[in-house]
Design brief:
This is CN hydrolase domain-containing protein. By secondary structure, the protein is α/β, with parallel strands linked by helices. The chain has a single domain, classed as Carbon-nitrogen hydrolase (Nitrilase/N-carbamoyl-D-aminoacid amidohydrolase, 4-Layer Sandwich), CATH 3.60.110. The strands form 3 sheets. Strands 5-4-3-2-1-14 form a 6-stranded mixed sheet. The chain has a 6-stranded mixed sheet with strand order 6-7-8-9-12-13, with helices on one face. The longest helix is centred in the first third of the chain and has 17 residues. The protein is globular and about 55 Å long. The structure holds 4-methylsulfanyl-2-ureido-butyric acid. 4-methylsulfanyl-2-ureido-butyric acid binds next to loops.
Length: about 300
């Protein structure tokens, strides 16, 4: 057995006025709970340091940039890294990343994986940015990820925590390619933070299915690639927008083995044996034996 004790570290709403320091205190409280329960790793949501700001149309760049981190860790986030090192627990954290190289500024919807020594061992930039780039007045709230972020361009994996670890962010979880590209690299645990409004303005007929779709895509991704999946929400009514909860930990069988039951700050725990992946990776989903890539060319050519 190769065990990782994992916590899904769900957050309730973060108000626009809440400071990084206040949020880090909430993240720290969840981290302490997780460690008291023997966890090696806690997974936090997408954009876990601020409110989900793409719901607002903004033109003032300084106002927009307030939601981004210029360094990681920075002065306000360093206490979380220090606590991780002190407790001996790793974490996945989603945040808005602002880079500045040679006078060129780029902004991404990113996540990092931090090991038990408090060192960043991997960074991921969200590939599938949903929503729109311009103000759409018909919407009760906006979803302007295409305005505020550039897309990432790769799904890598990293050896950490005794296994092969991968990251994705929110909308990525709906796309089979996300899991498959990491599956082809032998991924054994995919960590995914999300912010998902219950109401989808362009398709309100999906609203009643939002929790079902959340679980459907992550269960399918886990089973079809023989990997653990840890999906973690920022949930509840945030600045007037109701966001789904449904944080859960899914085994390579596709079964949900732990789940949050509230829409607030809460941890759900599972003892994840990475060797459970083998049973799927070596049989039904033995890619070397059964895949037929010559029949899939259209996926990358169109
Ligand atoms: N954050 C994020 O990617 N949310 C999307 C919302 C639906 S598309 C407007 C999601 O896929 O959950």
């Amino acid at each position: 057995m190769r065990l990782i004790n994992v916590a899904a570290g769900q957050l309730g709403p973060i108000a626009r006025a809440e400071t990084r320091t206040q949020v880090v205190a909430r993240l720290s409280a969840l981290m302490r709970q997780a460690r008291e329960c023997g966890c090696d790793l806690i997974v936090y949501p997408e954009l876990a340091l601020t409110t989900f700001f793409p719901r607002w149309f903004m033109e003032d760049q300084a106002e927009i940039d307030h939601f981004f981190e210029r360094e990681m860790p920075g002065p306000e986030t360093r206490p979380l890294f220090d606590l991780a090192r002190e407790l001996g627990i790793g974490f996945y954290l989603g945040y808005g990343e602002l880079t500045s190289e040679g006078g060129v500024i780029n902004r991404y919807n990113s996540s990092i994986l931090v090991d038990k020594s408090g060192a960043i061992v991997a960074k991921y930039r969200k590939v599938h940015l949903p929503g729109h780039a311009e103000h759409e007045p018909y919407r009760r709230f906006q979803h302007l990820e295409k305005r505020y972020f550039e897309p990432g361009d790769r799904f890598d994996v990293v050896e950490a925590f005794g296994g092969v670890m991968g990251m994705a962010i929110c909308n990525d979880r709906r796309w089979p390619e996300t899991y498959r590209v990491m599956g082809l690299q032998g991924v054994e645990m995919v960590m995914i933070g999300y912010n998902t409004p219950v109401h989808n303005p362009p398709a309100p007929e999906h609203d009643d299915l939002s929790l079902f779709h959340n679980q459907l895509v992550m269960q399918a991704g886990a089973y079809q690639n023989g990997t653990w999946v840890v999906g973690v929400a920022k949930a509840g009514v945030e600045e007037g927008v109701d966001q789904i909860g449904g944080s859960c930990i899914i085994a390579p069988s596709g079964e949900v083995v732990a789940a949050c039951t509230t829409k607030g700050d809460e941890i759900a725990l599972a003892r994840c044996d990475l060797d459970l992946c083998n049973s799927y990776k070596r049989t039904t989903f033995n890619f070397d034996v059964h895949r037929q890539p010559q029949a899939y060319r259209m996926i990358v050519e169109r």
